[in-house]
Specification:
The protein has helices at about 1-25, 25-40, 45-60. With about 70 residues, the chain is mostly helical. It starts with a helix and ends with a helix.
């Protein structure tokens, strides 16, 4: 019985740790994704900067990377 409880707790712990890691995306990855989004929008200059700024700030607010 103790082994079963230990295995269940270990599985839950691993799942939580994996979920926490998946939610974190390093800044360089977030920046690359936002650069692709800005390029796909076809905007240039200030408009492109606004798209990038919005994308990066959205990733920070939601805790995920665009």
């Amino acid at each position: 019985m103790k082994q079963l409880i230990t295995l269940v707790l270990l599985a839950v712990g691993c799942s939580l740790a994996q979920a926490a890691e998946a939610a974190k995306t390093p800044q360089p990855n977030r920046m690359a994704l936002c650069q692709k989004e800005a390029t796909a929008s076809g905007k240039t200059g200030k408009e492109r900067s606004e798209v990038l700024r919005g994308c990066l700030s959205a990733g920070k607010k939601s805790g995920k990377d665009a």
